[in-house]
Amino acid sequence: MAVLFERDRPVCGLTTRYGDLTMARGATRGKKGNFVVRFLRETRSEVRRVVWPTRREALNMTAIVLGVTILMAAGLGLVDWLFSELFALAVR
Question: What is the overall mean pLDDT for the chain?
C-alpha cells in the first residue's frame, strides 16, 4: 500500500492490488469545506493540463461524428423498412 503524505501526515492510501482508494491509518478526513476547496483546486489544476483540440481538429471530429450518426440512422432506417416489408408479406 502506498501512502500519500501532506505536510508530514498521511492523507489517504492507495491499495495498488485492487486500485481502491482507502483511508490510511491515522489519516483525518478534515472539514467538509476543506474538501470542497481542495476538490476545486485539483479540478482547476487538471483542466489546465488538458490538451485541448484546435478549432480545425474539433470541426473535423464533429463532422466525423455527424457523418457516422447520419449513416447509422440511414442504415437502421433501411433495416427497419426491410423488416416491416417482410412482416407485411408474412401476414398477407
Answer: 81
